[in-house]
Amino acid sequence: MHLTQKQKHFHSLDGLRAIAALSIVAMHVLSNSNYKMSGFIAQRVIPSFSDFVFLFMTISAFGMCCGYYERIMHNQLSLSHFYERRFRKILPFFGILVLLDLILEPSLSHLYEAFADLTLLFGFLPEAGNITVIGVGWFLGVIFVFYLIFPFFCVLLENKRRAWGAFFISLVYNFICAEYFHVGKTNILYCSCFFLAGGLIYLYKDFLIKINKWFVLGVVFVFILLYYVSHRNIYFCLGLFASMVIYGIISHGILLENRITRFFSTISMEIYLSHMVIFRIVEKTGLNYLGGNGWPQYLFTTLTVIILTSVFSFVARQILSRLTERQA
Fold first, then answer.
1. Which of 38, 128, 131, 310 is surrounded by the fewest CB atoms within 10 Å?
2. Which sequence spans correspond to the domains of the chain?
3. What's the CA angle centered on 302, arms 273 and 35, to 5 degrees?
């Protein structure tokens, strides 16, 4: 997802996307292992990295608006071409993972789930979060529903008054989804406030880029404090990631803008989708407990999974890109 508006790329968002992808890998390695680690970092911080999926959603909405909002609102984009690009961008890599998972664990239930996965429409299912074939793919299901409704999303952003109204309704929906319907992050309505936050940031981007970056960074740290003090309150989470995206579009520096962050950013979706497959392979080899079950082994396992996943993602992306070019 290249965030372009008049050929402008917000490079610091690459850094945020890379941080989100690698943090989710670190979280899943810990949550799927039995390492004996104590302390605030192990028990509170690393488990909270699962919420970085919401940062992905906010960045995705902002990026989609940068790339397509004006063209959709001025009828300058073929919807057929728009949806075709979404399928072409996601399905080949995700399809390989789904088929690989089905081969490794063949069963009738997995066949049903694989079919749902390969349509990319499983985000409409009420139990999408229970799909075990590429279980982390629930996020892709939500993202693809967002892509499908993106023209309507743009209409909601047609003016700022309507956009704020939609954002308020999304906050109410988030509360009702959790308190009454008992659905969470695998549901598009629960997540809609994060997408709309990205849309609002797009609408106000010309104003936001004039704000002092150190002030915004201070806001980020305030929300980090509130987020952990409140035990990961979803609304403080929303404020945290919205302020991080704002910081990303106004800041410039080597910390978030460098070759490493750009590399991981370009394959961030592939890393997210494939890292659990790689982890299971590492798990079967016994490498995840080679040096015990403490911090050193956890760090070694996480680094191993990141390296192997990155190599797999990069190679697969290159092969699929070349095949796509030949077909074109």
1. 38
2. 4-327
3. 115
